[in-house]
Write a structure and sequence with these properties.
The chain is of the alpha/beta class. The protein has four helices and seven strands. The longest helix is centred in the middle third of the chain and has 18 residues. It binds guanosine-5'-diphosphate and magnesium ion (MG). Associates with the 50S ribosomal subunit.
Length: about 160
């Protein structure tokens, strides 16, 4: 079967923007299956002759912070259970948050290949808080801008190296 790449991260870090950039128009929305609390969005993708399926795990935007935390744990768990490679998207405009640390810990324990990605780096530079992200124990952060389509090719190169 094709490898599965899952995108996880807090609400508003740009997961859907990133996903839509990579997926183009070939997106299908899959209805909730019983016991799963949210829609997932799948897309067939291709990079350098590698075919894979990408999942945007954050289909619903809850508005209570308890629900958000619970959803992020569910998201990370779905990614851990189903994905071959996990893209952990953070808001590169800022340092990491407590919620980022919590997701990072789940991802580290899983032993799955994880790419730590700082989104919203709209003009290429390493922000001062770039180095903070090493504390998450997930290796070198990659810098992208989903809005401006910067760094996406380098990220996809790293994704397919994990297959
Ligand atoms: P999600 O909740 O993680 O799926 O995040 P969204 O994709 O819905 O994006 C949340 C907000 O961040 C939106 O206002 C996007 O336009 C914005 N956004 C996403 N990617 C970028 C980026 O690379 N740069 C900037 N400046 N804003 C972005
Ligand atoms: Mg989204």
């Amino acid at each position: 079967r094709k490898p599965i790449v899952a995108v996880v991260g807090r609400p508003n870090v740009g997961k859907s923007t990133f996903f839509n950039r990579i997926a183009g128009k070939r997106i299908s929305i899959v209805e909730d299956t019983p016991g799963v609390t949210r829609d997932r969005v799948y897309a067939d993708c291709e990079w350098l002759n590698y075919k894979f399926t990408m999942i945007d795990t954050g289909g619903i935007e809850p508005n209570s912070s308890d629900v958000i935390l619970a959803q992020m744990r569910d998201q990370a768990q779905i990614a851990i259970d189903t994905a071959d490679v996990i893209i952990f998207l953070c808001d590169g405009k800022y340092s990491y948050t407590a919620a980022d640390e919590e997701i990072a810990q789940m991802l580290r324990i899983s032993k799955k290949p994880v790419l730590l990605v700082l989104n919203k780096i709209d003009v290429y530079h390493k922000p001062d808080h770039f180095y903070d992200y090493y504390t998450l124990g997930l290796g070198d952060p990659l810098l992208i801008s989903s809005a401006n389509a910067l760094g996406l090719g380098d990220l996809l190169d790293e994704v397919v190296k994990c297959f």
